[in-house]
Amino acid sequence: MTLSRGIGRGGHNKSKLVKGQRWGRLTYIKDADDYISPSGNRRRQVECQCDCGNLHILHLINLSGKGTKSCGCLKTELHKLKIGPMSTRWKGGRSLDSHGYVVIRTDINTQRLEHHVVMEQIIGRKLCPSETVHHLNGIRSDNRSKNLELWASRHPKGQRVEDLLAFADEIIACYRLKENAYD
Predict the structure, then answer these.
(1) Reported confidence tier of residue 31, pLDDT bands at 50, 70, 90
(2) Ramachandran quadrant class, 116 (left: phi over 0; alpha: psi -120 to 50; beta: rest)
(3) pTM: predicted TM-score of the whole model, two decimal places
(4) Would you give the distance in Å from CA 89 to the centre of its chain?
(5) Which terminus of the chain, N or C, has less C-beta within 10 A?
(6) What are phi and psi of 9, to 5 degrees?
(7) What is the rounded average pLDDT for all residues in the chain?
């Protein structure tokens, strides 16, 4: 047990530091060598162990008030909580890339093209590196399973005329249904 020269400024707090005393996630182990600043000021340092297992040496004054609460692991954990669905700015994890394809977040660190994910679900396996997914109607954000086609190699730009006609028929039928509903 050692006497503290004070946790606050000016050494007003003369309480003893006891092995096992805690501040946030830090547990006091022992005193470390004092730090002497270039101006000659001496600061008391203590060695603490964080709940994550890391040893951390810090100035005793940093433990008071809103000071140090961990070795840095707490900040990392809090940051991870603000990513993805836990973020206040979360919009569902879907966005468009610069080419017009829908990108989805599959986990905290991974983003994938949605049409690849949909095709993998359809065929029940991962895509091979040589395979590509073709949008039949040419709309890159339309990732319905009936609009996607698996190709064994790179495919040329554009759409087949018969695919465009089928898509046009689908749109016309949809609007005819809506038109009849209003009559």
Answers:
(1) confident
(2) alpha
(3) 0.47
(4) 12
(5) C
(6) -70, 145
(7) 79
- What region, left, alpha or beta, does residue 84 occupy, with left being phi > 0 and alpha being psi -120 to 50 degrees? left
Tokens of 69: 């609460």
Structure confidence by residue, pLDDT tens digits, 128-161:
888 889 998 889 999 999 999 998 877 677 777 8
Q: Which residues of 39-74 are buried (b: 16+ CB within 10 A; e: fewer)?
A: eeeeebbbebebeeeeebebebbbbeeeebbbbebb
Number of Cβ within a 10 Å radius of residue 26: 25
pLDDT exceeds 70 at position 4: no
Order of strands across the sheet with 26-36? 22-23, 26-36, 42-50, 55-59
Structure tokens at 146: 């009936």
Residues 6+ apart with CB under 8 A from 148: 115, 118, 119, 122, 133, 134, 135, 136
For 130-164, give the DSSP string: T-EEEETTS-TT---GGGEEEESS---SS--HHHH
Q: How far is CA 8 from the centre of its chain?
A: 37
Residue ranges covered by each domain of the chain: 2-78, 84-182
**Whole-angstrom distance, CA of residue 49 vs CA of residue 58:** 11
Average pLDDT over residues 71-82: 78
Q: Tell me the two tokens of residue 76.
A: 């990392």
Is the predicted pLDDT of residue 9 greater than 80, yes or no? no
